[in-house]
Amino acid sequence: MGLYALHRITAGDVILVLGASGSVGSILSRWARALGATVIGVAGSPEKLAKVEAGATHALFASDPELSTKIRAIAQAGVDVVYDFVGKATFPVGVAAVRDGGVIAAIGAASGQPPAATEQMASRGIQIRAGGTPQHVHGGTVAVATEQLWDAVRADLFSDLEVVPYRFEQIGGAHADMESQRLAGLPVLIV
What we know:
Blueprint: H1 2-6, E1 14-18, H2 23-34, E2 38-43, H3 49-55, E3 58-61, H4 67-74, E4 79-84, H5 91-97, E5 98-106, H6 119-123, E6 127-130, H7 139-154, E7 163-167, H8 171-179, E8 186-190
Helix pairs in contact: 2-3
């Protein structure tokens, strides 16, 4: 949904993925790169940097005091779109990184809900698009996105990602692992 409904990725786009080491961030980074985008991935900890490096064109560390400067060195005019899986803690980084007229796709909120758009953002023409909003996510877009996802899976875009299988009766444990951030790979439910 993020690559096609919230912002249609095209070859040449420069994107920033905040939370690029997570399951969805890892998938999005690889897929966007396969579509021809330059992907700047941000890891929340040094242990996660290798995961980000595997999927992004550039891998940066969230606590780097020079993070914004490094992003702007890669994308002088700013990135076309920010995919934010973290929320409140990374929102200021996304606002500083996005170009005028760009998009912040607020997909996750692991650190809390991001603040509302500001007058400064409005004057820069920055759009905030939330992951679950009906104008972007509805029956038609879900059907198309699902087919595109399976095409990407069949093309082996994600073959290097670790899969963590859960049997149906383990669904509670899968949710607990996700909530406590103990998940080491992509959760797959086996029924």
